[in-house]
Amino acid sequence: MQFDILTIVAIILTLSFILSEISFRFNYPRVIGQLLAGIILGLPILHLVFTSEVRNNISFLADLGIIFLLLLIGMQLNLDKFKKSGKDSIIIALFCVLVPFILGFIFIKAIGYSTTIAFVVGSAFSLTAEGTKLKVLLEMGVLNTRIGIIMLGAGILDDFFEIIFLSILLIIVHKSYTSLVWLPLKLIAFVGMVYLFYKVFPLLLKIIQKEKSRIATFSFILLFALIIAVISKKFDLGPIIGAFIAGIIIHLSNHKKQEHKENIKELETMTFAFIIPFFFVNIGLNFDFSIFTHNAWLTIMILFIATIGKVLGALISTPFTSLSLKQSHLIGWGMNSRGAIELVIAEVARINNIIPIEIYSAIVFMAITTTLIFPIILKIIISKDREILY
Q1: Rounded distance between C-alpha atoms, residue 165 and residue 160, angstroms
Q2: Whole-Å CA distances, 243 to 117, 156, 167, 226, 239
Q3: Scanning 180, 312, 341, 366, which has the fewest C-beta atoms within 10 Å of its C-beta?
Q4: Residues 359/305, Cβ–Cβ less than 8 Å
């Protein structure tokens, strides 16, 4: 049985909404429900429904979702909060990126995969889902505690590593190694254009804001982000980097804080209600169920090493911080929460045939599981020792 694209869109959004709400009712991030919707829709029995044409349409919406997701990250990046979190956040972030990256890289190389695949897996191990983590901290009322602020600061620094890893991956995807000699010149030209946009955008924004039209302002922001994304793509850096940079420029240029918050709210509403579900559903659609029968050991090892890497990274950093081992242990579990940019990295790598499906599926499984684990661990530890947060 085959359905037209409008019916497919309605089915995807309906199932995504239902499972997202169920996930939310159980105090888990809505993204889990969206991922599960994709996994259900990706069942082999439904392969005839999701034809190649339908999957291409979903993939387009998923790509748009990635762009808007990075735009949001750029618009919400808060350097002031990162400064307040101090030295501890910096040290925690560095160790929680480097240790899992090294462990993941070594493991993948040891079992016979290429250096590029090892880089992708190491990157996925290194990153943290700031959005899913902060949502849990907010719901439990612990975000403004000492540990909560350190997690927040470390997560903000983690955003920079996300962009670094994405940049390297996109260079691998879009550039041949023989033409890397042109990359510095293109980067210089791109930086020059970004600087020009940084100077011009505030002036144009002020003109648009004089209309006092929310529609005009919001439309201008979206148009600006898409233009930067297109330019970034033309410079072989991919649209994702452009969208993130556009978000930062918008954030730095909009001095009307209340209006900026409203812009973020509107973008979040549009993105998470309609576009982002397709990104996460698209991830689930490509989940390979045979992994549990043919590659169960690989899936378990990736989950185990990714988790150990984050917790061990936090524990190793303890002598260089003012934290106790118990506090570092809790933060390690917080940094272990995933389900966002590492999935973007995995998806970009999968689309461009950089990683095999068994690695991709294992990363998706790891992201889902680690996101589920964090709130459970947090509740258990806090119930035993509330003072650990201060």
Answers
A1: 9
A2: 25, 17, 12, 7, 6
A3: 180
A4: no
**Alpha-carbon dihedral sign for residues 121, 246, 135, 84:** positive
* Domain segments of the chain as ranges: 70-276+293-389
| Single pTM value for the model | 0.69
Select from 3.40.640.10, 3.30.420.40, 1.10.150.120, 1.20.1530.20 the CATH code of 70-276+293-389: 1.20.1530.20
Q: Which residue has the tokens 């997701």?
A: 69
For residue 344, the Cα-to-chain-centroid distance in whole angstroms is 6
Q: What is the pLDDT of residues 124-177, one digit of tens each?
A: 898 887 656 666 676 667 767 778 888 877 877 776 777 678 777 777 776 655
What whole-number percentage of the chain has pLDDT above 70?
A: 86
Confidence band of 14 (pLDDT split at 50, 70, 90): very high
Closest CA to 281 of 61, 100, 83: 61
Residue pair 242/223 in contact by the 8 Å Cβ criterion:
no
Query: Residues 58, 33: contact at Cβ < 8 Å?
Result: no
* Both tokens assigned to 288: 């390979």
Q: Give whole-number Cα distances, 108 to 104, 112, 119, 328, in Å.
A: 6, 7, 9, 27
Highest averaged pLDDT of the listed ranges 216-225, 258-267, 294-303: 216-225
Cβ pair 254, 263 in contact under 8 A: yes
- Torsion 12-15-18-23 (CA) sign: negative
